[in-house]
Amino acid sequence: MKPQSEILIVGGGVAGLSLAASLGKTLGKRRKARITLIDKSFSHVWKPMLHCFAAGTVANENDRISFITQASEHHFEFWPGEVVSIDRENRQVVLSPFHATDGSLVLESRTIQYDTIILAIGSCANDFGTPGVKEHCLCIDNLVEANVFNEKFRMELMRAFAHGSELDIAIVGGGATGTQLAAELHKALDIVDPYSLHAFGKTPPKLRVTLLQSGPRILPAFPESVSLAAQQELERIGVTVRTSARVAAADAEGFILKDGTHIPAKLRVWAAGVKAPEVTQTYGNLSLNPTGQILTHSNLCSIDDDRIFAVGDCSFIKDDPLPATAQVARQQALHLARHLPAFIERGVKVPGCVFKNKGAIVALGKYNGWAALPGGTVWGGGFFHGFSARMAHLFIYRRHQIELFGFYRGLISLYSDWIETFVRPSVRLD
């Protein structure tokens, strides 16, 4: 029997993969619909962990979740590729050709029909047109970029070892990604210390990390007390924090600030701003906001087409904008998972999604962490160096894994990660 409806989910991030698995259980298993997930890669990683992959303090081989495995276990299909255009009139999408890592063509451009499409393609850093950023800076918006940074970081460390020089790294953006990356890089070097003494006969080179924030304080989404405490903690471990530092340009040697100051940096990271991937501009003339996010109603349906939904960082609720966070994406995915079956089967309109803010957590490596809860309550820091907040951050990550793997497989994954701590170094060395 042919499925009654074709549902496409574009993007396998926090929202996309969770939604595909949920709809697979409710509609795919009963053959009420064929659910197809499309993503440029073959595996999912939790985006709030990308700074750990970039620093090498997490072995991403263990933390990647295979789309093919998830598809086979949750009654949906998966195809690699990127949706480069949407034909709204004929309800079909065009996928770009798919190439192997060596550049050889694997799949030609393809066309796929849909009845309902959910766009969950996430976001990327916004360089605001700053000269030199695209040519001279690295981003860590996805696993590929995180791995590229990690490779360069390890090679520059090796060069600094050999020459007895310092390694300068500058990070633009004092939000959660930038601050956590700055701390994680110092954590990586602390872990490397005992290995380097035996392998190279010398201590690690001095790491000089500069964090540049255009606003008056880092972590602007958190209470001011957290911003101040986080800056003090970063400075304590050796990070130079510069607030009200607007970047005018980037070059091969570092960053140039508006006041003419040059910040030298061998590695330059851009972690400021949020915008949707530029490909949204080819999505059937859908209405977008200035940063390319798709304008939606409160029920996450595009304001232009009731068969197109957008969730997570690539969407922008016109009358009630929400921050681009994993928490928002997860709640939106759960909302659609709950209400899309009635829309698909009986044409019942999806109700508005009400976001419930459960707070935010920032974990500065092994050094400290804070959680800001609704109502202004803050906990973390103090004598235990933010242990409770850092454990909460880890708990959220493990909960995400359990939701995708299932309870028992999620626990096995946790156990296997723990076992590996006894046989593998806790930082990527090669």
Automatic annotation (TrEMBL):
Cofactors that this protein relies on: FAD
Keyword Oxidoreductase: yes
Annotated FAD/NAD(P)-binding domain residues: 6-333
Domain of life: Bacteria
Alphabetically ordered keywords of this record: FAD, Flavoprotein, Oxidoreductase
UniProt keyword annotation of Flavoprotein present: yes
One Pfam family, short name: Pyr_redox_2
SUPFAM superfamilies xrefs: FAD/NAD(P)-binding domain
Family: Belongs to the NADH dehydrogenase family.
Protein name listed in UniProt: NADH dehydrogenase
Organism for this UniProt entry: Gluconobacter frateurii NRIC 0228
